[in-house]
TrEMBL record:
Membrane-spanning intervals of the chain: none
Amino acids binding a divalent metal cation: H176, H221, H276
GO annotations of cellular component type: cytoplasm
Protein name from the UniProt record: 4-hydroxythreonine-4-phosphate dehydrogenase
Organism (species): Roseibium marinum
């Protein structure tokens, strides 16, 4: 007996005024050249039709249910209509689309839970626009952690953000918080938990037998023995010691400024940074086009392009699809480890 066909990847359309709609259309149009597995979009068909016209793509869009998506993918872009029809205004924020944006994500997670999709790829959302309508999660990462807790009760669901590129993988220990709040948020337990989840997922999902984690300091020169800030000595160093005691190949705290040049990158598999920009700046500088945002620590697979909504490019047809395509391929590999 042959293997059953792979389930499709569920893709959320993301911010309607951003480049998410362009990306799904361009990716489907170039699916063969990009070696993309079957996927479907939870979004709005009317808006996608309008955007396809704007960027000069004459492609078939099919309104389907998730269980039919795989069968349609070779001939048309399968769309699971989610929410009301939207008006296509590229680059223009509209408060009334916020509930649809959230419903796209929730619907995809429910599809995975229901066995209809193998993994999730999210398109970028306008975070500030969602906050303005009362959305209480800083980003997808935290929202997906909450959805995992709701739909997989009892399963471990501490979401950890990783930006993975061919030349660098990084994890920010604190994510979407103001820089002034970082020192207080950094605890030994948080660093240890993040390191353990990272090491576990690099082993079980990414095939590293003994992943080497380089842990950044917080202060210049990792604090110079507590003379330029005490967090490196009093919080981060003990956390590194605990990770080592747990059998994880962790080193640090390292001075972050000298951790990302090519020879330094040979000494580790992944960097844990203490705050968002400490590690996302090098990751996006080195591999903006190929980078993929992966959420570790969830009971399901979620990836995303590493960029945002790029309002200025929406509807122009010029948005690069490399990162989105890499996100779809990686979701497929992670969700179907025995079939690639
Ligand atoms: N995963 C998510 O949902 C993310 C959402 N965002 C959201 O994106 C919005 C804009 O954030 P920014 O910091 O301006 O980042 P951005 O990534 O949208 O744009 C930064 C620069 O990169 C360019 N760019 C982005 N994607 C591109 C692509 N595919 N092809 C070619 N050029 C591209 C843009 O034109 C711009 O010059 C914010 O509302 C933020 O909340 C940002 C990052 C991730
Ligand atoms: N800068 C990366 C980013 O903000 C991604 O956030 P999320 O929406 O994936 O949590």
């Amino acid at each position: 007996m042959g293997r059953p066909p792979k389930k499709p990847i569920a893709v959320s359309m993301g911010e309607p005024a951003g480049i998410g709609p362009d990306l799904v259309l361009l990716a489907w149009a170039n699916r063969k050249a990009l070696h993309l597995p079957p996927f479907y979009v939870r979004g709005d068909k009317a808006l996608l039709a309008s955007r396809a016209h704007a960027i000069g793509l004459n492609i078939r869009l099919e309104d389907v249910s998730p269980d039919q998506a795989g069968a349609h993918f070779s001939k048309s872009l399968p769309i699971v209509q989610t929410g009301p029809a939207l008006v296509d205004r590229p680059g223009v924020e509209q408060a009334e689309t916020a509930s649809s944006v959230i419903a796209f994500i929730e619907g995809c997670v429910e599809d995975i839970r229901g066995g209809l999709a193998s993994g999730l790829v999210t398109n970028p959302i306008n975070k500030a626009a969602l906050y303005r309508t009362g959305f209480s999660y800083p980003g997808h990462t935290e929202f997906l952690g909450a959805l995992a807790g709701k739909h997989w009760p009892g399963a471990p669901a501490k979401p950890v953000m990783m930006i993975a590129g061919p030349d660098l993988m990084v994890v920010p220990v604190t994510i979407h918080i103001p820089i002034k709040d970082v020192p207080a948020a950094l605890t030994e337990d948080l660093i240890v938990e993040t390191g353990e989840i990272t090491a576990h997922d690099l082993q079980t999902r990414f095939g590293f037998s003994n992943p080497r984690l380089a842990i950044c300091g917080l202060n210049p020169h990792a604090g110079e023995d507590g003379t330029i800030g005490t967090e490196d000595r009093d919080v981060i160093a003990p956390a590194v010691a605990r990770l080592k005691a747990a059998g994880i190949a962790a080193t640090g705290p390292h001075s972050a400024d000298t951790l990302f040049h090519p020879p330094a990158r040979k000494a580790y598999d992944c960097v844990l940074g203490m705050y968002h920009d400490q590690v996302l700046i090098p990751a996006k500088t080195i591999g903006f086009d190929e980078g993929v945002n992966v959420t570790l620590g969830l009971p399901f697979v979620r990836t995303s392009p590493d960029h945002g909504t790029a309002y200025g490019l929406a509807g122009s047809g010029t948005a690069r699809i490399d990162s989105f395509s890499a996100a779809v391929r990686l979701a497929d590999v992670l969700a179907n480890p025995d079939q690639v």
